[in-house]
Amino acid sequence: MVNILKDITVKAVQLPRHQRLVLAGFLLDMDGPDPKELDQAWDVEIKERVKAFDAGLIQSDSIEVIQKKMKMRFAQ
Fold first, then answer.
1. Which tens digits make up the pLDDT trace of 11-65?
2. How far apart are CA 23 and CA 9, in angstroms?
């Protein structure tokens, strides 16, 4: 098993950068959380944020401010 892992590693580092990134993404996705669990976690997060906003605990930027921030961020 160790030899197989060594061979795979040697071949992987010889791949072009974009192929290494694709491989890394694939390997990370294999062991990532279940998409249903992610959806449930986001549902909880969204509900908590809405509740905090409604309670006045957090504030929101206007759409104009958000658009300006996005233009500045992606202009770089």
1. 999 999 999 999 999 998 888 888 899 899 999 999 999 999 999 999 999 999 9
2. 11
Which residue, chain included where needed, has tokens 């309670």?
A: 55
First CA to last CA across the chain, in angstroms? 45
Rounded-to-integer distance, Cα 62 and Cα 69, Å = 11
Cα 31 to Cα 50: distance, rounded to the nearest angstrom? 31
Exposure letters 54-66 (e unless 16+ CB within 10 A, then b): eeeeeeeeeeeee
Domain boundaries of the chain, sorted by first residue = 1-32, 35-75
